[in-house]
Specification:
By secondary structure, the chain is of the alpha+beta class. Helix content is 28%, strand content 23%. The chain is flat, with a radius of gyration of 26 Å.
Amino acid sequence: MPRKKPSSSIYVLIGVFVLLLVAQVAIRMTRPEVKPFTEALDEKLSARDDIDSRRKDLMKVQLSVRDWMVKNGNTPPNTLAALVPEYFPSIPIDPATGKPFSYSVDGKIFRVGQEGNKLSQPDKGAPEALTAEEEAETQLVAMLDEEPEEFVYDPAEKRDPFAPFNFAPEIDTEGKTELEQFSIGQLRLTAVLEGFGDPKAIVESSTGKGFTVRLGTHIGQKNGVVTEILPNKLVIVETETSFTGETKTNTVELKLRIPGQQK
């Protein structure tokens, strides 16, 4: 008996499968690499030669606790064992004591490394070295404004304490317009001009200078673009790149202030 030829539908299925496979590979090749939190943190800390090794270990514990809080209801873990194995293979050891980092929790406030801090604290004759180290920490993580003796995280009166860490490069203002030198918080909407075809608005900076904005105007320090001009507000879309390499967009509104309204 003559052999039957394979059905044409089989070739169609094979062709579809190959196309899907090629598309998947192309997507993976073009997708920006997003590094895990621990890998990105290790990379950033290892690049800081101006911070001693114990302080780096301490900061890694502090930042890991902060990230854990973001994922778990904004409450610190009861013990550092909760960071194993996601952040550490075992409970992190304090080089100053040879034991696990001391750790205590009081509500939403946590303290790390108090015992080791007492042992590693420099003598009173070297205050300048301690100041330089604190300055380096501040540059790495602005919200870790701790005292020299110990780290205390207190969410009271701090700006958005559970926002993700931002290790993105410093904002490059070269080639930016004057309006892009201000943060959105330093600007206010003073007037919306309607009935002229192309909608316009007047934005005033904290220095008192006024700017005319239109749809598509670049505004703010975070690559903001005006996308809507409404009778009572501007809609601005900002684009940021996180320290893991992930690009995110954020929509903010700049509302029109009425006479007598407080800032």
